[in-house]
Amino acid sequence: MTLLTLCEDITDPSKNVLPKNHHLGPRLVCPEYSKSVQDVKTYPLLKQERLFALCWNIDAGRNLYASMCPSPEPFCYHYEYSIGEKTQLHTHDYIELGYVVSGEFRQKILGRDITFHQGDLCLIDKNCLHQDYLLGTSATILFLGIANDMFTEIMDGNVTAQKIILFLKPALLKQKDLQQYLHFRPTADTGTEIEDCLSMLLTELRDRIVGSRYICKGLLMRIFHILGTKYEFSLSKEQRKTMNWLLFEEVSEYIRQNFTTITIQELSDTFHFQEDYFNRLIKNKTGMTYSAYVQKFRLEKAEQLLRVTSMTIEDITEAVGYHNKGYFYKIFQERFGMTPSQYRKRL
Predict the structure, then answer these.
(1) Which terminus of the chain, N or C, has fewer Cβ atoms within 10 Å?
(2) pLDDT attached to residue 295
C-alpha cells in the first residue's frame, strides 16, 4: 500500500466520525481564534508512547479529514474550513516532522510564509511558533510527533548523517530558547526510500502489533539517515554560521582522534561534504590548510612522545603517521627550529 493510499485509508470518513465538539478536535485541527494568543500543544499520548502520526487529507471542496495513530480504534475527524482560513498560531513541546504526501501545503513559521511541495519535509523545533493555511487546494500531509527523549536517543545513537547531527543535536536539544525549523527538499537521486519508510512507520503506528515500538524507532532512525544523506536543507545566515562552528568542532575532534591515519576522503565519507569544503572550513577557522592542520596534530604528538617516552625517533615517526623519516625530520625542524634528536637532548 502506498503512503498516499494509507493516509487516505486512515482518514476515510466512512470510519467512526467524531462529532465536531469532540475533545480531540482542537488537537487535530485548531482554527484561528485569536491573532495574539499562542497555543501550546503538549504531547498528546502517554509517556510510553513516544511517537504518533497525524494525517490530514484536504480536498478542494473545503473539507479536511484528520486522524491520529496510535488510537484505541480507527476514527476520522471532519472539519469544514473556509478558503484562506488558518490554524491558530501554536508551538509544540515536542519535535514535529511534517511530510507532504501529495499536493502543496503552506505554513507560516516564525513569521515567514513557506510553501512545501510534494516530497518536501519540515522539521519543527519545540517552541517554534507556526500556523497552517487552508487554501482550498487538495493536499495530504503526514505529521509525526516525536517525544523529546526519543529524538535524543536517535541523535545520540549517531545513526544519522553527521551533517544533520551537527546541526540538530545541539540546536534542537540543548539550546532550549532557540526557535527554528529545517526545510528538507528531495534531490535528483532521492528515490522513494523515505516514502517506503514512512508507509511502514504509519502502518506500525496504526496496527500496534508486538514489537511495534522497536520497529518504529528503527524506522525513524532510518528516516533521519535518509534525510541527512539524500536531502538538501537550507539554512539562514545565522543558522549556517552556527552550523559551521559546530561542524568545525566535530571535524577538529575527529582529526584529533584519527590524525595518524586520517585522509580528506575519509572526512568526506564521514561527514558527507565535498573535499574542498573541509579546506575552506579549516582555512576560515584556523588560517591553515587541511594538510597543515593535520600536520599540527602530528607534530604536537611527536613532541609529547619525545618528552615523556623513550621511544626511538623511528618509532615516533611511525606512531604519528609518517613513513618517511627524512620528511619527518624536515617538518619537525621547520616547526621547532631543531631536529627531534636535538629536541630530546635539550630536555
Answers:
(1) C
(2) 95
Q: Let me know whether 112 and 18 are in one domain.
A: yes
- How many C-alpha atoms does 204 have within 13 Å on its Cβ side? 21
Q: Could you tell me if residue 251 is inside a domain? A: no
pLDDT more than 90, % of the chain: 55
Rounded-to-integer distance, Cα 125 and Cα 88, Å: 17
Is residue 253 in some structural domain? no
Q: What are phi and psi of 91, to 5 degrees?
A: -130, 170
DSSP E strands: which ranges in the chain?
Answer: 17-18, 39-41, 51-58, 63-69, 76-80, 85-86, 90-92, 95-109, 112-117, 121-124, 130-134, 139-146, 181-186, 231-234
Taking the C-alpha atoms of residue 246 and residue 344, their distance in angstroms, rounded to an integer, is: 37
- Strand, coil or helix: what is 102? strand
Residue 193 CA to residue 42 CA, distance in Å, equals 31
As a whole number of angstroms, the distance between CA 116 and CA 108 comes to 11
CA distances from 148 to 7, 63, 153, 320 (A): 25, 32, 9, 42
- One domain, residues 202 and 329: no
Residues in the chain: 347
CB 131 within 8 A of CB 92: no
Condensed to tens digits (0 to 9), the pLDDT of residues 137-162 reads: 999 999 999 998 888 787 766 544 45
Nearest one of 52, 33, 6 to 208, comparing CA atoms: 52
Q: What range defines the domain where residue 191 resides?
A: 3-234
**Do 67 and 203 lie in a common domain?**
yes
CATH number, domain containing residue 178: 2.60.120.280
Question: What is the Cβ-side half-sphere exposure of residue 205, based on CA atoms within 13 angstroms?
Answer: 31
The number of folded domains in the chain is 2
Strand-strand pairing, 181-186 and 231-234 = antiparallel
For residues 98 and 124, the answer to whether their CB atoms sit within 8 Å is yes
Residue 203, pLDDT score: 96
